[in-house]
Amino acid sequence: MRTLPPAARGYIAVVLLVASLCAAPAFDGRTPWVTVAVLAVLYAACEIGLPPAGRGTLAAAGRDPGRDAPAGIGSFYPVLLAAALMLPPSAAALVALPGSLAGRVGQSPRWLRRCWRAGQLGVATFAAGHAQRLLGGERALNGLDFPYLLLPAAAAALTFCVVATTLVGGVLVTAERCPPRAAWGTPLLSSLAPHLTYGMVGLMMAALWRGSYGAFAAVLVLLPMYIACWVFAQVHREHTAHRATVRALVQAVEIKDRYTRGHSERVGRASVFIAREIGMAEDRVDALRFAGILHDIGKIGVPTRLLRKDGPLTPEERRVIELHPEYGHEVVRGIAFLGEARAAILHHHERIDGSGYPFGLTGDQIPEFARVVAVADAFDAMTSTRSYRRARGVDEALAELRRCAGTQFDPAMVSGLISALDRHVWTPTATADVPDMPTPGTAEPALPLPRPAGRTTTAAAPDRRP
Length: 466
Prior knowledge:
By secondary structure, the protein is an all-alpha fold. It has 2 domains: 6-234, no CATH class; 257-430, Orthogonal Bundle (Hypothetical protein af1432). It contains 20 helices and 2 strands. The chain has helices at 6-23, 33-49, 58-61, 77-86, 89-92, 96-102, 110-134, 137-142, 150-176, 180-210, 214-256, 260-277, 282-294, 304-307, 315-321, 324-332, 341-347, 368-382, 394-404, 411-421; strands spanning 384-385, 429-430. Strands 1-2 form a two-stranded parallel ribbon. α16 (324-332) packs antiparallel against α17 (341-347). The chain is elongated, with a radius of gyration of 28 Å. 45% of the residues are buried.
């Protein structure tokens, strides 16, 4: 706790105190301890069985479903919502305690993260229990009064969502100085639908438990959803590993070529714009984004002095830099999850008229991913300020793409970017190592893209570099 700002330490202490006060009335001698124990053991088993959230923050210890870890990974909320419906609020607040203290935590200080999670979930479950009771949920559950019972169950789920997300947002604001809108607004909106689903599963569990089927049938209700959450958790971990791999590769290039700072991410973003505009399937869009981000990964194999050279490149130096698509393909050829992205990395400097490199492919011989990335790469390069020239305006860059559509670029991809930018704002950008320059205005004359020896054609000029 010594590493946390004083405001965060005070905030966490207050939440833990409130959680203690919420749970204190459970020890008045009227709590159904057998039900509490069964639910607590069940929740602990689910908590231990699912992987911990990926973020290294106290917010992750709260399993905030609006942030990096998907909802339900590391905390099985249906059990807590069933407890909120079946038990007195103070007793329901205790159900999360054993699982939170025994659950896996990714980073230190583990004791603080476990205590925070127990306090946050205890307060949220207590509030959910009171919300359903205000709407007569206890009476409706005892009489299995459907469909009215759906109302208090939904109220409990929404209250749990609001309280849990609000508490996590407080940690983000006090400990990480996160802007309030990012800490509360977006996470709350993205959490509402999942929590309503958890609330309905918790309602099914509570109804079976109170009905003629008993606790055993209620526990069986959880099995399909638990399996779904476990599979979802594994998929999320795999995707997280993929993103970490891509991040590491991009950082390796950025060390050599400072211009790629931000450029790679923007090319990935523009590639996604084009892909969605042309109706590309969503599973391919993810791979295409990786292609855009990694299109220049081959610069790892290019001497740093050439990448950072301010003066004109000699023909020999250009030929060395023109090897970067092949270097990039060699770097990523063994990374199976990239799929079609590998072809884009190899062919993103090919041209529709066959004047590109490394193989001089024409038209549809060029992979679709490469045709998308070529347009995104050229557009971002033209709208980015560099040490030797000012950025073009967005309209001027799009006009240049139109001029070269059909010769250098695929017209369908150019049209897709133009249509996408009618709905999205794109701000011309200066690279991290560029000194102050005049505001982008009228662009300088086009600079020809490097071409293999012997080819002569007119082309757009996003950069003097390949």
